[in-house]
Amino acid sequence: MQMLVDALASAAIIAPAAIGFTLIYTLFRYANFAAGGFVTVGAFAAWTLNAFFGLPIWLAGFGAMAAGALAFGLCDRLVFRPLRGRSGGTLLLVSIALSFVIENIIRFCFGAQIRGFDLPLTGPIEIAGVRVTRETLAVVAASAAATLSVGLLLTATPVGRALRAVADNESLAQIRGLPVPRIEAVGVLIAGALFGLSGTLIGLDLTIDPNLNWAVTIPIIAAAIVGGLGSPLGAAIGAFGIGLAEEATATFLTPTYKGAVGFAAIALVLILRPQGLLGDKVDRK
Amino acid sequence: MDLSRRLFISGATLTLAAPALLRHGLAQSAPIKIGSLTPLSGGGGPYGPEKAKAHRAVVDLVNTAGGVLGRKVELIADNTETNPEVAVRAARKMIDADRVCAIAGTWASSETLAIMPLCQDANVVQVYTGSSDYLPNGDRKGLCFNLQPLNQAWCVALADLAAKRGFLEVAFAGPKNDFAASMGESFASALRKVGGKIVGEPFYYNPNQVSYRAEAERLIATRAPAIFIAGYVTDFTAVYRELVRGGYKGKVFTLSFAVGPDFKKVVGSAADGILHGSPVPPVGKDAYDVYLNLVCLKPNGQVQAPYGCAAYDEMNLLLLAIEGAKSTEGPRIAEYIRRIANGPGERVTTFADGAKLISTGKGINYDGASSSVEFLPNGMLKSRDFALYEIQKGEDTLILTTTSIVD
User: Fold this and answer.
1) SS3 A84
2) Phi, psi torsion values for B371, nearest 5 degrees
3) Neighboring chain A residues of B238 at a CB cutoff of 8 Å
């Protein structure tokens, strides 16, 4: 039971970013390896607002979402929009390069020191023999709220329907009179905000430093692939699957294999069920 | 003019020899290149900048006074990111493209060990701070010099402290790298000598993970009354937070570089009670004060820039050895480092004083800012001061200082 709670806590951290990653993949058909970089931007934005300006952590979290949306929106305008229509491989390489640029900008602005939110470090609450901290409860609640909100937005609002229409067939959406660039911009801002939220949640768990970038990138991508690219709910379930696999590896095997779990999950899913748990099968013609 | 056969042969010989002569001449006036390879980010991030700054300060001072062998010293600086793979790429560039004669500044033992084969093959001298007991093994040519004592010395002091505090059963954890593996072995051995034992198997984890909950759970499950975590500040902070959040009530031992000001700021009052130790500079010594003044720090009777002072010694040793050897060949530099560090000769604490005596043909004995800088035949340090602290009310409270001496 303790392992399940720990897996849920780990999943809650990466789930919003995995949903952001899958949203971008659905809209533009490329794997954005700079996701970890934008998560790091969110973590530093939340730290600045919380530890530097003294705002409460929940308000800093909203600020981090705004900063993530702004940073990703800006990068999309400057880097990815001029390359629209290029192959997924080209954009993937560009996103890796962008990730290095973001990491070094953060290092230049904030230095290489570790940082943490201005929150007291407290012991656990014990519920039915399971230890859980207040931060974990807050992280899981925030992550679940974000996942549900995105799910509702995509299924029950006109913007969500427009986003799905553009993702499904951009040309048809354009012919039907949908303002495609504006809808794509909304998708980019939502994904950026989700990266910012993950950054805040990671800051509650880990130390904040520019190296966060590569620590989170593989779990985020693995969660999105396991869940099925294009499915926000799948990304959240994929995050839980990856979290559970990592916790089980560290508990029953040796923790040094934990880093390989993400890669192993990607390989297994691509071999056994390429569309992921909840993704739709795509036939290439 | 008639071109006689003799004139033709002489002219042709001179023309063919000219590039070689020019190259030799230019080499004698070209800058002396030295690599400054420090961890400016990652686990060593809190300490790399002070090492890089010390290297730069010494080189600037020496260049202002006319350089070494009448040539300017050019520092080729790079960041290891506390990552052996990055260190290897940077060292490869320094050796093949920049043609450095020495690389100073590596901090994590894994970086130092990773670049060692490259340096050995190219006869490049390595001067560094590291503590893995495996460090002397890769130095086939006697080109490596360590300004830090090995783990064996650290562990004797830490195991003694654990025993004195009544902790004879201690769990061990650390990141999976050479440094922690060697620390695990040495600590187990030192603890056995004082009647204690390691609880369970030494426990290693990956650095740079998203979460350390399961690792903390496993450590808590050992029910050990104390845990020694030989981590760097990035992973130690995350593991320690999870231990506190997991409700661990035992004692935590660690190394001082993991619990610097950044750590204390991040965890706040939860840091109280941690016991830690590390090699320290000889506070109050003239050479240490000279270093502090050079990098614009005021001597205040406290330990400041503990790795910067070692970097100051690294660069002074290298430059004095080049001056003494009148050569930038690795084996010659290494031979003179031994001569300058161990004496016999007049005590010097700066490059300027040493160079003056060398020019008059006198022997010197370099006495450093971080230690007396005496090397064993394998390039490891003979002795260094060591301090043990307990964090109380957010401050390091000194428990004791000892001098670790290796026979």
Assistant:
1) coil
2) -165, -175
3) 205-207
Q: Where residue B363 sits, what CATH number does that domain have?
A: 3.40.50.2300
Contact B142, B333 (CB under 8 A): no
A261 near A242, Cβ under 8 Å?
yes
pLDDT given at position A285:
44
Low-confidence ranges of chain B (pLDDT < 50): none
Q: Is the domain of B162 the same as that of B255?
A: yes
In Å, how far is A262's CA from the nearest CA of chain B?
11
Within this chain, do residues B257 and B325 fall inside the same structural domain, yes or no? no
Nearest CA in chain A to B79: A112
Same domain for B254 and B398?
A: yes
Q: Which residue of A has its CA nearest to B247?
A: A123
Candidates A250, A42, A26; CA nearest to A34 is: A42
Alpha-helical regions (H) of chain A: 2-28, 35-47, 57-75, 88-110, 134-156, 158-168, 170-175, 180-205, 212-227, 232-252, 258-272
Kindly state the percentage of chain A with pLDDT values over 70.
Answer: 98
Structure tokens at B56: 């730069």
Structural domain that includes position B227: 151-279+385-405
User: Measured between beta carbons, which residues in chain B are less than 8 angstroms from residue A258?
Assistant: 205-206, 209, 214
Q: How far is A114 from chain B (nearest CA, A)?
A: 6
Q: What is the pLDDT of residue A236?
A: 84
Residue B25 pLDDT: 57
Residue A284, pLDDT > 60, answer no
Q: Report pLDDT digits (tens) over A127-153.
A: 887 888 888 889 999 999 998 998 898
Tokens at residue B205, please? 């984890």
User: B157 to chain A nearest CA, in Å?
Assistant: 28
Determine whether the interchain pair A254/B213 forms a contact, defined as Cβ–Cβ distance below 8 Å: no
A132 touching B (Cβ < 8 Å): no
Q: What is the ipTM of this complex?
A: 0.78
Counting one residue from A and one from B, how many pairs have CB atoms under 8 Å apart?
127
Domain count, chain B: 2
Sort out which chain A residues have CB atoms less than 8 A from B250's CB and list them. none
Residues B242 and B295 in one domain: no
Asked if A206 is an interface residue toward chain B (Cβ–Cβ < 8 A), one would say: yes
A121, A131, A250: residue with CB nearest B215? A250
On whether residue B365 sits in a domain, the answer given is yes
Q: State the nearest Cα–Cα gap between B144 and chain A, in angstroms.
A: 28
Token reading at B131: 């503590």
Q: What is the pLDDT of residues A167-179, one digit of tens each?
A: 888 888 888 888 8
pTM recorded for the entire structure: 0.78
What average pLDDT does the structure give for chain A? 86
Same domain as B155, residue B142: no
